[in-house]
Amino acid sequence: xxxxxxxxxxxxxxxxxxxxxxxxxxxxxxxxxxxxxxxxxxxxxxxxxxxxxxxxxxxxxxxxxxxxxxxxxxxxxxxxxxxxxxxxxxxxxxxxxxxxxxxxxxxxxxxxxxxxxxxxxxxxxxxxxxxxxxxxxxxxxxxxxxxxxxxxxxxxxxxxxxxxxxxxxxxxxxxxxxxxxxxxxxxxxxxxxxxxxxxxxxxxxxxxxxxxxxxxxxxxxxxxxxxxxxxxxxxxxxxxxxxxxxxxxxxxxxxxxxxxxxxxxxxxxxxxxxxxxxxxxxxxxxxxxxxxxxxxxxxxxxxxxxxxxxxxxxx
Length: 315
Fold this sequence. Notes:
mainly alpha; MetI-like fold; two-stranded antiparallel ribbon; 12 helices
């Protein structure tokens, strides 16, 4: 009789995740956003000048309604041409669809950078606090508790304003200030979570065996404990990613984010004054883009948690 080959936590989680068709559809939607953001990023780096992503190009008359065939004469030319736009044009005649696609690049970039910054701060601090306890734990808990008492959006806005004014002698503006402000203020949740997980696992048999073999504290934390809570980090990353996108939209809407290039928040801010003129398509395009990525990320994050968390296994 041949022995049954076991599956690792990750292999078993992926197997169960692939059975959830709706979650995989949501993963496909998120992947489309990431692919668009990656193509735009590479286009800017290597100067490919892909026409479909040239958001500042004039493609029609001002405030042209969506899905309408129209004839217009480009400035400086005498011949007219017939075009159509899926989401209409803005007040300068630029494609709303191209601005919406570029906004995906802005939001995904901010969310990725902010997520990595928060993980780089929160995971080590939480692991150190949970492993050493004592006064080290007291200091870290006091620090993140104090930071956590401040309303999150006010804290992010305060950091964004400070970074815009002066940060260690440098003036930081645009997208850099946004992801720094979000990343430096959003590590409290993951720090608290990792601290609790390390406390539960620090007296495990594999940790005691590592100590008996003379492993250093740093090796035990980063070689033995953190890999065993890595699924918690991945789940937290997927669930908080959407909140970082929302934070970027809010900061851009308030004028503290990206100003030179399109973002969903800036599009919504610009569309506020245009609604009175019955120009609704710019706000609708940005809102729909935010809705789909938020819904897909939430559903996929919940499915990922159900599949990777050993306590939630049902099969």
